[in-house]
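Replying to the earlier thread about multi-chain prediction with a worked example.

Input:
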Amino acid sequence: MNLIVGVSDMKVTNDIEATLVTYSLGSCIGVAIYDPVARVGGLLHYMLPESSLDQEKARKNPYMFADTGIPALFKAAYKLGAKKQRMKVIVAGGSQVLDQKGFFNIGKRNDIAVRKMFHKNNVIIDYKDVGGTVNRTIKLAINTGETCLKVSGKGEKKI
Amino acid sequence: MSNINSIIKKINRLTPIPQVASKVMSIAQDPKSSMYDLSKVIIYDTAVTANLLKVVNSAFFGLPEKVDSVHQAIVYLGMAQVVDLVLLSASGENLQTAQEGYDLEAGELWKYSVSSALIARELAEKKGVKETHLIFTAALLKDIGKVILNQYVKDSFDKISALVTEQNFTFREAEKEVIGIDHAELGAMVAENWKFSPKMVEIIRHHHRPQETSMSEFESAIVYMADTICMMMGIGVGSDGLAYRFHPEVVESLELTETEFQKMVAGFVEKIEQVEAMINV
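Result:
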């Protein structure tokens, strides 16, 4: 059963029948986490780097921003018994329009935001596919932890 | 050339846009026209009326009661908004189909088109542009060329993709190089064929390079920006990805600040589900 994670959305589950899916990342970033012992997985699809843009929106939907969405993702997984040291972490998305520079480059800013947070909290990324101009989809099967990355026009691969 | 001619001939295979679209556009441009004139033109097309009422009653508008007449829709939403929604209700036929060449499933190009149109209108209103219907419709129809070019992109995908990944071509430039014509040019020809205004034709032709247009510069810049925002949000992005060029001078001409830009993105993200409900994706 596919559990769809929309734009600015997050889902965490220990249902072994479930596959978490997020489509069409564009400049957004998808963060997938999985604890193989607890068999708990989570997937976040955030759109913007910093919640300081609009605190009210961040309160209503913390998954819109990296700095509020990422902690919420990990906390929700801990609640289901996941442990940070066992966690497999995958990051994908953050594409850019060609020649994009400065503040319009949300893809790059989203990438910097996740790197900063992980560095501060000692989280190691196991697999990363960020940047470029492609459109990505992430799938995470809770039963096995198998993760697939689809790049539009180029097919799907296991990671 | 024969290849290009045979591609252009396929314009006639599209479902033509219903006449009601051009009629409501001219009513919108006539300051003397009344609400009564508008509703009279719309109800004549029963299919478009049915679509319109479905859209008006969707969660996107959150109206307090069910609207079951065009007249009532105008009372609630105003003439300007209803004109846009008629254009939307009349445009879906071609754009709702799957486009395998672009790796877009059924409904994805439509969601992209509607989202671009809504963002473009918001931006036009913010910038005080009067011709919002022109901008809305141009943004809605800008990728109509993809519906025809789809098959050719599918056949030549490897060549197009190689130019993009290895030689810094944009996807549109690669279409032009490999097939001989790109989706924006072809879209402009469709708009001409459907007797849209020269301004509309021009905006569609230049929606990826608005700095090259000789007319409707500001309007083209708005449609371009709306398209860029959609791509960044991953809406309707397929095998072409985000492989289009960013033109900082165009963005400067719109005088958008960083906060304004990000707030538009954040605001639209909140509406995505309602947009999906509105168009039944």
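The first strand of chain A starts at residue 2 and ends at 4.

Feel free to reuse this layout for your own posts.
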